[in-house]
Amino acid sequence: MKMERNCRNAMNTYPMNMNTCPMKMIVVVFLTLVSLALCSGNHNDAARRELDWSSLKAERPFKGSIVFQSDMDGDREIYLLTEKGLAKLTENGWDDEFPKWSPDGKKIAYSANPRGNYDIFIMDADGSDIVQVTSSDKDEVEHGWFPDGNKLAYTIEQRKGFRKSYSLWMIDLKSKRKSRILTEFKGSSALPNFSPAEPLLGFTGKKTFGWDVFVYDRRAKTATALTEGGKACRPHFSREGRKIAYVSAEADGNGDIWLMNPDGSAKKRLTERDATADYFPSWSPGNEWIVFSSSKKHRIDKGNWSLYLVHVKTGKTHLLFDSPGRDVFPDWY
């Protein structure tokens, strides 16, 4: 269940488990928890609003630029981290989430909900020239750029009764034409990531129970499961397409960063941190490092999530950035 919650966290919603206990006790416990949550939330939000985010810096030097999502100021905004410091790219009263660099590093795609549901937007690398890409009554969230930079794949969430389903769609940024991807795949598909070297699309899929990593060959139009057991998600191709970083709970029941070849062979656990949940891997420009988010909590809406680096050859991890908020969904250019 922990794994599935974070594999589905594009929407940041989670199923609730009801305990079997007397109704009076449920009401008392519920009211107590609500009171504590409200008090804690008000205190945390006030502290975040007083934070001088521009004074925050990376804990160690690194090359390139990392965009990520954080609620350090009280709501979810997009930030840019470089060796020079931190820059805030969005500033508004709604949620801005899931930033992704374009292949040339000139644009950033992200999801936002100014109308209530999520749509896809694109902005320049400095946060200017914001353009809305999609507009519907559905939640259009976590996305990936096609290698040519002219199209975006994204995830659509739809509610079916008490359950939700996920499907992958694409939009041509010039013609604005939309079409569904993976029409042959029987099940939910989400979280797209393209290989820059081959016509391969990595995605997180679920056919029955649990999520696994799949690769779709866009020429052969075939989808292949690279993991099994319903405990893996979020594939991310290296810069030359020879390796896939992904998240798996196979080793300790929590999320860890793993590596494998595009055919599913040579699986290797990269982070060995049994006390934490390690998620959202993104490769450095030279494939030497992977940035990821980590927390002792297993829900993205709980705990203090921070950015870490893991060295691909040695597996050594280092704290990169830590704010009072939840710093998640990093993407490195």
Topology record:
Layout: H1 2-7, H2 23-49, E1 66-70, E2 77-82, E3 85-88, E4 96-101, E5 107-112, E6 119-124, E7 131-132, E8 139-145, E9 151-160, E10 163-172, E11 178-180, E12 188-194, E13 200-206, E14 212-217, E15 222-225, E16 232-237, E17 244-248, E18 256-260, E19 268-269, E20 277-283, E21 289-295, E22 306-311, E23 317-321, E24 327-332
Antiparallel strand pairs: 1-2, 1-24, 2-3, 4-5, 5-6, 6-7, 8-9, 9-10, 10-11, 12-13, 13-14, 14-15, 16-17, 17-18, 18-19, 20-21, 21-22, 22-23
CATH topology term = Neuraminidase
CATH class: Mainly Beta
User: Whole-Å distance between the termini?
Assistant: 32 Å
CATH superfamily: TolB, C-terminal domain
**How many distinct domains?**
1
Low-pLDDT stretches: 1-5, 8-47
Strand portion: 35-45%
Mean pLDDT: 86
Gyration radius, in Å = 19 Å
The total of helices stands at 2
> Looking across the biggest beta sheet, what order are the strands in?
3-2-1-24
